[in-house]
Amino acid sequence: MSVFEKIKVLDMSHALAGPFAGMLLADFGAQVIKVEHPHGDHFRPLLGGAYHAAVNRNKRDISLDLKNPEAVGVVKKLMVESDVLIESFTPGAMDRLGLGYEAAREINPCLIYCSISGYGQTGPYHSLPGYDVVAQAMCGIMLCTGHADGPPVRIGASWIDMGAGMYTALAVLKALLERQDSGRGQRVDISLMDTALSWMSPLIARFSMSGELPVRAGSALAAFSPYQVFKAKDGYLFIGASTERFWLALCQMLGLEELTRDSRFATNQDRVDNREELTKLIEQALASRFRDEVVAGLRRAGIPGGPVLDVGQVLDDPHVQQRGVLHHLEHPDLGPLTQVKTPIAADGEMPLIKTPAPAVGQDTRQVLADLGYEDGEIERLLTSGAAAAPPS
Amino acid sequence: MSVFEKIKVLDMSHALAGPFAGMLLADFGAQVIKVEHPHGDHFRPLLGGAYHAAVNRNKRDISLDLKNPEAVGVVKKLMVESDVLIESFTPGAMDRLGLGYEAAREINPCLIYCSISGYGQTGPYHSLPGYDVVAQAMCGIMLCTGHADGPPVRIGASWIDMGAGMYTALAVLKALLERQDSGRGQRVDISLMDTALSWMSPLIARFSMSGELPVRAGSALAAFSPYQVFKAKDGYLFIGASTERFWLALCQMLGLEELTRDSRFATNQDRVDNREELTKLIEQALASRFRDEVVAGLRRAGIPGGPVLDVGQVLDDPHVQQRGVLHHLEHPDLGPLTQVKTPIAADGEMPLIKTPAPAVGQDTRQVLADLGYEDGEIERLLTSGAAAAPPS
């Protein structure tokens, strides 16, 4: 039994960040039990089930209605034998259920108790519910993303949620190592807002030094030119000629040698100042060329660049296919489904995907039996609505 | 001595992802030595030094010119006593220096050897250099970000780099736990592209199920309305009325009760279909109101929302200030500088920031002396250019 197979995780979280944290630990080999309301995690219906399926694999599932005191009793029994608990209720909700940290610590002083929230367990906004998009608004990234003359733009996926899940998993492994010395668990407090701020740290450091704010520049980096997305005959691609060598190689590749003698484009700063004209000239040269041809040329010449792919094209990319990061499985309810492995290749292997995301309460009976509940008690819990399970 | 204080990390990485990984470990208490070329990490000049300062604190610094075989010898000596090595050269470069994984494993079979690259150590693109913005283009996020009728948009900060650093730190802690059982180190292979794909996993799962591609919708979530950024009298704010209850509360708050009886806005789908008209009506109501007033109203009413802040305003936010996630220090070269703590609060404390990012080679002499080099040898290494240090 590997070190992770001995680790028991009680995943009481929902939506995206907490489940992703639990899934990372499950992928590493931990025994993760998802505790789910009989109505199901409210993210189950989103994207046709894709959200839930993407972040809950490799887990078992017990369904409990925590409004029922008997269900709370089941959670307390699970706490006794768990190493880790993850929850993402609005701060205060676990306390009101009698499952807050102080209660949990009395039950199991070795428990690593992780709470994920929008703003953290402290501070003026701590009791507000958290949303990835609100953290995007408040951390500064929305005002760094988009066009200088346009409105703020949302990152088109909930990456702060994913990051908060990663910080939680990191906190758990850190706490497991520290517990070996101390013998004690920890209270871990992760927030979407703190996560986003840590990713803004270079821009925050600059502002604190100079008062300078980032410039929104569409697909470009404001400091370099040409360094942005361009349109070719059949699609977009990114070209990043951030150095003199790349600029000269690009002009040669596109048959635009005359630009290297054009005073409007003599230095990077000139090219930044005349970005619009330069973009037009480069897009003229690209208008008759296929994107993949240009990308192949960039790669041969060592110029940073790549195609701008849609999600479907990503799955067709030969590198992505051969890298082994994708896993295709048959989900019992959703059908064929592509999963992305946890992208930590250790000695050549990424963690295995053994089971798809569970159905609500699919393991309720077994988990209760493992806890020592007799058949009669289990049926009573199911009948009273404290627990739920699919028809057996 | 805590468990992390015994962990020695050789951070041979540069730019953003690798240094961030090393910094996370340094923040946890590990002894991290940054190995830096005498000319300095090429990210040192960016953003006036802010990039480097944000991801290299709590480290010591030895400067070595790895083109010099004596410098390579120093690294091999450091490998003997290190637990972890992090490098982010283009795949193959460490091998050409005689410092690749096979060589390292012979020197120290317990070493956890982490490589970070654009595409990973395997697959058709493995030898291409990696850039955050290229991974953004190729993972699909650029085509999910921006406006439906506009070009792809870059996320205005290098978040994939940050994520790759976090996966590296997670891989290191995982490997440390596994090493306790196995007695052996690991070869860890992290890439920007895999990191980005893992964050795209919900959208990849959906595409694989249904062929559906994400819709670019500016600051909005396409599925809900009103759920986007709006303009108030003095700035932008996000309002996310994703449920009927939020919608009714919003109309009441803004004095727009007549909209709840307007057939164009009867259901969420109606409001999505008539987003443009609805946006106009809401912005009319907001035109005379101050942003912070509206945000306070949203919070009182329990409606998801928040201000769209710039990086400077973020630092003035009362919650951010009171949460304790910021650390103000005096950097010896850069002056006053705000750092973001590693956002893992454990038992109420985030990891301490003890020392600012080091100067190039500031600890060269001491690190060499600790390795057993005599004063004469150290001077010879400095004179030959194998090592570098500021004037003593």
UniProtKB/TrEMBL annotation, chains A, B:
**Keywords for this entry?**
Transferase
Q: Which GO terms of the molecular function aspect are on file?
A: CoA-transferase activity
> Repeat among the record's keywords?
no
Q: Which domain of life does this protein belong to?
A: Bacteria
Give the stretches traversing the membrane.
none
Indicate yes or no for the key word Transferase.
Answer: yes
Pfam families listed in its UniProt record: CoA_transf_3
The entry's protein name is Formyl-CoA transferase
Species the sequence originates in: Desulfoferula mesophila
